[in-house]
Amino acid sequence: MTDEKFITVALPKGKLFNLSAELLKKVGWTADGLSEKSRKLVITNESARLKFIITKTADVPTYVEHGAADIGIIGKDVIDESAKNIYELLDLGFAKCHLMMAVPKDKKRLHLEDYSNTRVATKFPRIAERFFSERGMQMEYIKLNGSIELGPIVGLSESIVDIVETGTTLRENNLEEIVSIMDSTARLIANRVSYKLKYQRIDNLVTSLKKILSHE
Ligand code: PRP
Predict the structure, then answer these.
(1) Against a cut of 0.85, is the pTM above it?
(2) Looking at the domain covering 97-183, what would its CATH class be?
(3) Whose CA is nearest to atom 3 of ligand 1?
(4) Which residues contact residue 97 at a Cβ distance below 8 angstroms, ignoring those fewer than 6 apart?
């Protein structure tokens, strides 16, 4: 567990960072020098008894599950893919997107089942596997860490399972959505032990955030 006097907050680099830091700042949870570009790995606000760590997106649930961070902000998609043992405390509503399967427009098949036994490139093999196996489809999963859309373009896979936000990446690469798999937004998560031991401060945060979100 982290220092009991402090709450350690894990924030992800990338798209979610600014929105998360801005939201927390509105309820006074911030620190001087809290920036995605900071080379400092732990940014501390002594008087507010807060520590922030900035991690790779996919690693936020890991830090929280092991108690290296008490709480964190991360997308529902990443939470489900990580399958970590954490509490999900609040839907923060921002970073709306959805996970879907897409294929090159000119290689579209008639039915979803027609893609059985083909290759799927994805950053989300666990969610993809659950989705296809529920439909009795066996697939070959190729794990990528970014630029997933490249997979079917260069013949690495027949399809992708990836996040769509505005749809620009799909459009610019002549890909078409076949089926939506899940919706996602940013969530506040907590370590199970921290939530009990630091209940008052974490619960106050949840209450303050709920108030702000209901006015937005
Ligand atoms: C995400 C996702 C898509 C893109 C979707 O990638 O994997 O590529 O955003 O957004 P759009 O619908 O608004 O175009 P990200 O930018 O996080 O980078 P990555 O490819 O390295 O995962």
Answers:
(1) yes
(2) alpha beta
(3) 163
(4) 75, 77, 163, 164, 165, 183, 184, 185
Helix H or strand E segment including 208: helix 199-214
Q: What is the pLDDT of residue 1?
A: 56
pLDDT at 86: 98
Residue 192 CA, chain-centre distance (Å), reads 19
- The response to whether residue 164 sits with its C-beta less than 6 Å from ligand 1 reads yes
Q: Which of 66, 96, 99 is closest to 80 using CA atoms?
A: 99
- Architecture of the domain whose range is 7-95+185-214: 3-Layer(aba) Sandwich (3.40)
At 78, the amino acid letter reads V
Nearest CA to ligand 1 atom 2: 163
Q: Report the pLDDT value the prediction gives residue 216, as an integer from 0 to 100.
A: 74
Q: Which parts of the chain register pLDDT below 50?
A: none
Asked if 9 contacts 201 with a C-beta cutoff of 8 angstroms, the reply is no
Q: Dihedral of CA 126/132/134/137: which sign? A: negative
Question: Per-residue pLDDT tens for 137-148?
Answer: 999 999 999 999
